[in-house]
Amino acid sequence: MTIALTLLAISVLLLAATAIWLAKTMKWIDERTIEDRFFQLPLAERLGLRSEIEKKARIISVIMLPLSKLGVRIPVTNFEGTKVPGICPTEAMQYAKDYKPGPEDVFVATQMKCGTTWMQQIVHQILTKGEGEFTDDGHRHLYTISPWIESRGSVRLENAPLINGRRIVKTHLATNLCPYSSDAKFIYVARHPAACLASAIDFVSMLMGPMTPHNNFCDWFCSDDMWWRSWPEHVEGWWRWSQERDNVLFIHYEEMLESPSEKLAEIAQFLEVELSEEELANAVEKSSYKYMKDNENQFEMSPPTPMSVGNKTYFVSGKKDRGKDISQEDQDRVIEFCKKRLEGATYPVAQFYPDVV
After folding, report:
1. What is the pLDDT of residue 311?
2. Which of 166, 256, 275, 285 is the most exposed place for a label (fewest CB within 10 A)?
């Protein structure tokens, strides 16, 4: 055998061994992080598993980088024309679409990175009257109690505990796919589109690194490839529901920042929960950015991935002008896109986001 053939054979064997190791390692990680398996662990065990994944990630990242340059990307699910990340497979999307909500269900709905986790915690605190805690001795994490209905990234809906008779269901689904019942409650949170994009860039980059399934975030945001549908379509659909249905409450992220006590009181009234002044104050404190940032291990919405460990924290910034973290060019493009898509819409964008007009 010539030297060239020997080197080729060795290269093939190394590639095969690498592929086998990568497949086994990714399966090992998936088995420990699928659904709420990671979140159900005591905190010390979660931190230990994160450390183990981080060690393996150093090798995986070396493999992933050249693959990303060859065009390999994290898979995306296309369900009835709606693009979603691979963590939301077809069977989970179908389950969500077909689900029949009951009177115990409180849906927290948003386009991604518009205050979802914040609103989940707000609802949790309202239902527990400001006494809700995540500890090793009880519920250990937000995603052990609040199912993300269209994904594999939380407790399964059928296993989710009721919190004082209610179940907090997370979804990013637009109204064309979101299951509806007049028996359930729905709370939708909208956030300025430029802020939504800025937060999405940080989050997707943190989780997927070079394996992110798109090359330009602004192109992605200003298109029908945006996960869970475009911002204008998302907001318009949910605004229509809120105007036509008494069991749908439409909230703006910026309003919650400006008047947290007032907005929490409004949400409590919508949920038909009476809070004393002390209970309301406790609920406001435990749903504050500082409290959630200080207790980030209880609220991070994704278990560690080979690309995310060692990266930025989940809570980057909850500020009102988050949209300024992207370039002026991208801000202008997002605003122009939303302006055009909202022409003739019922959502009063000029009232809430006048710069979009």
Report:
1. 52
2. 285
Q: Is the dihedral of CA 46, 172, 343, 226 positive or negative?
A: positive
Residue 8 domain flag: no
Task: Quickly count: other Cβ atoms within 10 Å of residue 253's Cβ.
Answer: 22
Amino acid at 98: D
The domain of 89 spans: 34-356
CA distances (Å), 9 to each of 5, 22, 66, 114, 290, in order? Answer: 6, 20, 21, 51, 57
Rounded CA gap, 154 and 160, in Å? Answer: 9
> Mean pLDDT throughout 16-36?
86
Which of 25, 102, 96 has the alpha carbon at shortest distance from 59?
25
260 in a structural domain:
yes
Amino acid at 50: R
On whether the CB atoms of residues 145 and 139 are closer than 8 A, the answer is yes
Q: Are residues 130 and 286 in contact, defined by beta-carbon separation less than 8 angstroms?
A: yes
- The rounded distance, in Å, linking the Cα atoms of 155 and 146 is 7
| CATH number of the domain bearing residue 204 | 3.40.50.300
Residue 110, φ and ψ in degrees, nearest 5 = -155, 160
CB 132 within 8 Å of CB 125: yes
Q: For 83, list phi and psi in degrees, rounded to 5.
A: -90, 135
Checking if the pLDDT of 159 tops 60, the result is yes
SS3 115: coil
Let me know: does 57 contact 311? Beta carbons within 8 Å.
no
- In DSSP notation, 184-230 reads SEEEEEE--HHHHHHHHHHHHHHHHGGG-S-S-HHHHHTSTTSTTS-
Examine the pLDDT at 277 and tell me if it is beyond 90: yes
Please give the tally of structural domains in the chain: 1
The answer to whether 308 and 56 have CB atoms below 8 angstroms apart is: no
Query: Would you give the end-to-end CA distance of the chain in angstroms?
Result: 72
d(C-alpha 106, C-alpha 85), whole Å: 24
* Collapsed DSSP state (helix, strand, coil) of residue 272: coil
